[in-house]
Structures are given as C-alpha cells and as structure tokens.
Amino acid sequence: NAIRYTDEGTISIICYTAEAERWAIAIQDTGRGISPEDQSRVFEPYFRIGDEDDYLPESSGLGLAIVNKIVQLLRGSVELTSEVGQGSTFTVLLPLRLE
After folding, report:
1. For 46-98, how does the pLDDT look when each residue is reduced to its tens digit (9 = 90+)?
2. Burial 73-94 (b: 16+ CB within 10 A, else e)
3. How much helix, strand and coil, in percent to the nearest 5, is found in the chain?
C-alpha cells in the first residue's frame, strides 16, 4: 500500500527490537495519509478510503484486513499513525518468542 499510495516522496522500512520482548517492522511513507475517522476502519474487510473515483485499479480493500488477521494469529498487533497529506506509518509488532 505504501508504494501504491505514495505518488511522490519516500517510503522507509525500519526493523527494530521493541519493548517487552517484541520485534517491530515499521513502514513509513509520505503518501496521501489517512484521516482520523478512516483510521479506525482501515482494517475492516472491503473498506476503501475516498470515493470510487479515487480507488486504484484492482483495489479490493482486503489487503490490510488480511495483514491484520495474520499478525493477530501470530499474537501481534498493527499500529497506525497518519496525517492527511503527510503520510502514514504502519508498525507491526510481533513477539520475539511464541510459547
């Protein structure tokens, strides 16, 4: 999504060890950004931001829902910070060890 929704600017991927024995993968872009009211819905299946005119070809609204489900199955979480016009950061937090 970072590549698809960043027309200009940069995309960064950062991996690091987070607190509480967790591993973090952060994907940061300078793309369109996501409004606060849409941020709570981006992980819902088939939810897409904007009007039909804004949708990218072959966009189904399933990608983030699938990622979120897989991360939950691995006992992790996905965090989102975003500002419209400034970009977004999706951070996947996974445990370093599974019991």
Report:
1. 888 766 666 566 677 899 999 999 999 999 999 999 999 999 999 999 999 87
2. eeebebeeebeeeebbbbbbbb
3. 20, 30, 50
